[in-house]
Automatic annotation (TrEMBL):
Organism: Limnochorda pilosa
GO function term, MF aspect, one: transmembrane transporter activity
Regions that span the bilayer: 49-69, 81-98, 104-125, 137-157, 187-205, 234-255, 261-279, 286-304, 316-335
Protein name: ABC transporter permease
Keyword entries, A-Z: Cell membrane, Membrane, Transmembrane, Transmembrane helix
Localization per Swiss-Prot or TrEMBL: Cell membrane
Keyword Transferase (UniProt): no
Entry GO terms, CC: plasma membrane
Length: 349
């Protein structure tokens, strides 16, 4: 454990030193930037709650990538799956009438099914036709964003919407809304759900026969087949589970934060999930810490941009430097794994 903590602390410190040097070299005050970064993430109750609000979808987005990776698959379509899940949750939230005890679970189930359905085609292409899942899932990201936007326009508008913010569904029913921890802030009790899902996935992967089969497929497809694992069935199930988790992230955004589906609501949450997976070393429990870490940077740098003279682009570069240093070891491990074992994974390359 001490070695793992040291292995994380060293790159963080190195990134802060390099980032501070960058800020100083451009005429800024590194200590001021770090101070506002900390204040933006934790300085007030509102800032802390907003940080946790960002951690909610980031944990699930990273978990979606990690689950697929455990079976040797790279699901890069989290963004599209998030939109699909969010749209399905909004439809149930707007058009279904039910008590809260039924309405919320039903809307969450719709988000799970929406995300899984959007992962189905890339999963089938990968498992049965050996089509590279990276390409197909990346393509489906654009389809998810644009298709949901088109459906909102076609269903709720006859004209007049001019911006992405205006392209939105009606507000969901109160019975479908997930309560907020503090009413005036956007953090909902979905944060508890995100953590529980991460713990549940960890338990399934580490304590069940199916989890062992997933790990076996990810380690070596020939070995898994020799051991009697139905490789294609496991890979397909994992891919759909990955999409469902991403869809749940979108559902929580609609039901807990926005209370309606808004076009372009995701600020790259699906792509951020790749970073979360790297930071957490694809461990389900690691997604909790990694999602929180990235949320700290995201919310902290909002304050840096607002309250200092540091240019927005410098803030983005500084954030990228920190992420690069922290995730470098995991990124190297990932590249080595796929170079060494890419041809062994489900369906070949």
């Amino acid at each position: 454990m001490g070695v793992e903590i040291l292995g994380l602390a060293i790159p963080v410190l190195a990134a802060l030193l390099l980032g501070g040097s960058l800020v100083e070299g451009l005429g800024g005050d590194a200590r001021e930037v770090l101070s506002y970064l900390w204040w933006g993430a934790f300085g007030t109750t509102g800032n802390l709650l907003t940080t946790l609000r960002w951690a909610t979808p980031l944990i699930l987005s990273g978990l979606a990538v990690s689950v697929a990776y455990r079976a040797g698959l790279l699901n890069m379509g989290g963004e599209g799956q998030i939109y699909a899940g969010a749209f399905c949750a909004a439809l149930v939230g707007v058009h279904v009438s039910a008590p809260a005890s039924v309405h919320v679970p039903l809307a969450l189930l719709a988000s799970l099914l929406g995300g899984a359905a959007f992962a189905l085609v890339p999963a089938l292409l990968r498992v049965y036709l050996r089509v590279n899942e990276i390409v197909t899932t990346l393509m489906f990201n654009y389809m998810g964003v644009l298709l949901t936007e088109f459906l909102v326009l076609a269903t709720y508008f006859s004209g007049g919407a001019t911006t992405a913010v205006e392209i939105a569904t009606p507000r969901i029913a109160e019975t479908a809304a997930i309560a907020r921890v503090v009413p005036r802030y956007p953090l909902s009790w979905g944060i508890v759900g995100s953590v529980l899902v991460a713990v549940l996935v960890f338990a399934v992967l580490r304590r069940t026969v199916w989890g062992y089969e997933v790990e076996a497929v990810g380690a070596s497809e020939p070995f898994a087949e020799y051991a009697g694992v139905r490789v294609r069935r496991v890979a397909l199930a994992v891919f759909l589970l990955s999409g469902a988790i991403a869809g749940l992230a979108g559902g929580l955004e609609v039901l807990g934060t926005n209370r309606r589906f808004v076009s372009r609501f995701s600020t790259g949450l699906g792509f951020d999930g790749i970073l979360v997976a790297l930071l957490g070393r694809t461990d389900p429990l690691g997604m909790i810490a990694a999602g929180l870490f990235l949320a700290v940077l995201k919310n902290g740098f909002f304050a840096v941009e607002r309250l200092t003279d540091v240019d927005r682009n410098v803030a983005i570069v500084l954030q990228a430097v920190i992420l690069l240093f922290v995730s470098s070891r995991a990124l190297i491990d990932l590249v080595r794994r796929f170079r060494r074992g890419g041809d062994r994974h489900v369906g070949g390359a």
